Amino acid sequence: MGGFTLEILFGNPFTGRLLCRTKEFLNRSGLDYEDGIECTVDAVENGEILATGSRQGNVLKCIAVSGERRGTGLSSVIVTNLVKNAALESIFHLFLYTKPENRSVFGGLGFYPIAATRDVLLMENAKDGVRKFVEGLECPVKEGKIGSIVANADPFTNGHLYLTEAAARSCDLVHLFILSEDRSEFSADVRLRLAKQAVASLPNVVVHPTGSYLISGATFPDYFIRDKTRVKEICGELDLAVFLQQFAGPLHISCRFAGSEPFSPVTESYNRAMIRALPRGGVSVVIVPRLEREGEAVSAGRVRELLRQGNLRAVRALVPASTYQYLEGRHGGST
Hints:
By secondary structure, the protein is α/β, with parallel strands linked by helices. It contains 11 helices and 14 strands. Strands 1-2-3-4-5-7-6 form a 7-stranded mixed β-sheet, with helices on both faces. The chain has a 5-stranded parallel β-sheet with strand order 10-9-8-11-12, sandwiched between helices. Strands 13-14 form a two-stranded antiparallel sheet.
């Protein structure tokens, strides 16, 4: 290590003065510290921070080495300690988002590329991890028109069912992906189960979790993106790159379906990004007008709002019977 003696400091996370110094070090490196960090490792010499890195869940982030110490193995020190810390929490499958020019740095530390855009590279520490995940997904039909839908479904509504039925009518097979991130009101397991129950009568629809691969803006880190106005755009571009580079080909997907978006500008922007990006990769995009009830588009957000109001009765017209049965058990007694 060039003859210098290091002190390795751990924080779960840091607070006070050390947190301020870590933030200042990151800022000098052109990076930002992110809220939600669970663990930080600093490499310090004579009170001076030479390198730092953090972990949030299964994502490594905010990794930086001072300019004069780059190439001395400090990146390895930081990543190794973060990996050991994650193992203490029984987290072994790790991801990191970084700039594309850092591919060789993290490649030398046991991370493998999943997908990249001009702005961001997504990597994981499992060789062929994404390939093996996709190979494990049910794919009973490999010829003809094969469609896909990606939804959070928080919870699964008649709008989701309407979109899935529209896709199923025009396709030989539809892959319905439900986001696996547990950052919604309903857990990933519940959302996946409700989706499977709702589409059980559609023989040409298979339902999958996304695992850690198809992403949402909820967990996308932006610590290395200086223009914060582009964060949602960059996140969307990466998600579509993962879909095209890792999912569409192996699953023979030629068409992606999405509902029109009257409520969320972010989702509407994502739909426009799909229309621009996916056809270049051989996947057409179909935007299906939202199902409406009494002149209002059916949405999971509206269902959650009614549940907060205790108006379970009004929810009944907006969700499939299987979803309503679950909600009745969870929110029983509401009227």
